[in-house]
UniProtKB/TrEMBL annotation:
Coiled coil: none
Domain of life per record: Bacteria
Entries under CDD domains matching the protein: Esterase_713_like-1
Protein's UniProt name: Esterase
Length: 348
């Protein structure tokens, strides 16, 4: 039986099929063995003593009395994977998104350029793209019967300012009146397109999300974790919990790191860390605090004999990067920087 493979072309979203050695993609295509998905983690819960209520299946139909009590699965993480026919690096790359976002952060950029998923596939890595609990294709719990906190919906202004696309007070409903940082590398014309992928955020889900990601690490085995923003602390915790599985942790602007006094740093000495920061961190005190707490962890790990690389992109001569570094106009340069670091620090 002849082996059948997929080729992902250099044009975003194009997948061609090769059979019997005949290529239907150009020379820059990515040869893929398998595309699939699964759920990791989760637990069974039972809901009791909630009143039945009327529900409408569709407009104009007679309401149906619904009993919301019963058994449910909750806490699971959704994972889409792409496995290469001939990966150049054996540990797959697990990509975990930030708060209120989904795995779409690493797919095609809002202005239509190739995202980091395709870059790292082209660099020879199998990629496992996750939607954390309550994000994207990972379901969420009933509110308020199970989840005590309500979902949080971020406004465009909050995203514009917190993600450092423009300074405080620079957002306007009319795109023509918005005032981004003069040196911003975010594709400003595609900001509204980016906001379409933002989802509600549940602050009470950290424990469930951590359990789901820990289950993912255990299921995949030896791996490299790449985290963004709120997933950063989850990645640090997963690395501490399973140092035999995690070959490296890449943290893109993490929302903090463990207090070194609470962590056995000896467990991490063999695991290289890469921490990357963008620009305009002085726009909000919360960024300064997160930067400082992460730096404390980085310095402590190095003093303990660990391997941690700290990169300030402005210090490298690249000004204007937003919080969404993987979407910025120079995202391909940062991806290449990460690939070079992986080549130097992760074997196999």
């Amino acid at each position: 039986m002849k082996r059948r493979e997929l080729l992902v072309g250099s044009v975003p979203g194009v997948i061609a099929v090769a059979a019997g050695g005949m290529s239907l993609a150009d020379d820059d295509g990515i040869r893929v063995r398998e595309v699939g998905s699964f759920y990791a983690g989760g637990e069974s819960i039972t809901l009791h003593d909630v009143e039945s209520r009327d529900a409408y299946a569709a407009k104009g139909q007679t309401p149906v009395r619904v009993n919301p009590n019963g058994d449910f699965e909750t806490g699971q993480v959704y994972v889409q994977y792409v496995r290469l026919a001939r990966p150049r690096s054996s540990p797959p790359l697990l990509m975990w998104h930030g708060g209120g976002l989904t795995g779409a952060s690493f797919e095609t950029t809002p202005d239509g350029r190739q995202g980091w998923q395709q870059h790292f596939l082209a660099a020879g890595h199998d990629v496992y793209l996750a939607d954390g609990f309550a994000g994207g294709r990972a379901s969420w719990q009933r509110y308020p019967e199970v989840t005590p906190s309500e979902p949080l919906f971020r406004t465009k202004q909050e995203l514009w300012e917190l993600f450092r696309i423009g300074p405080p007070g620079s957002y306007a409903t009319d795109p023509a009146k918005r005032r981004p940082y003069p040196d911003t590398r975010f594709p400003v014309a595609a900001f509204d397109e980016f906001v379409k992928q933002v989802v509600p955020r549940f602050r009470a889900y950290d424990r469930s999300t951590q359990a789901g990601y820990d289950a993912l690490v255990a299921k995949v085995g030896p791996n490299v974790i790449l985290t963004h923003s709120a997933a950063g602390p989850l990645g640090f915790a997963a690395t501490v919990a399973a140092p035999d599985h995690v070959r490296a942790h890449i943290a893109i602007e993490p929302s903090g790191a463990p207090d070194p006094s609470t962590v056995d740093l000896d467990r991490l000495r063999r695991i290289p860390h890469l921490i990357v920061w963008g620009d305009h961190l002085d726009s909000d005190s919360s960024w300064t605090e997160l930067y400082t707490s992460t730096r404390r962890f980085h310095d402590a790990l190095r003093r303990a004999g660990g391997r941690s690389t700290w990169i300030d992109l402005p210090a490298e001569g690249r000004r204007g990067n937003s919080h969404m570094i993987m979407m910025d106009r120079d995202s391909h340069k940062t991806a290449r920087l990460i690939t070079s670091w992986l080549d130097a620090n992760v074997k196999g």
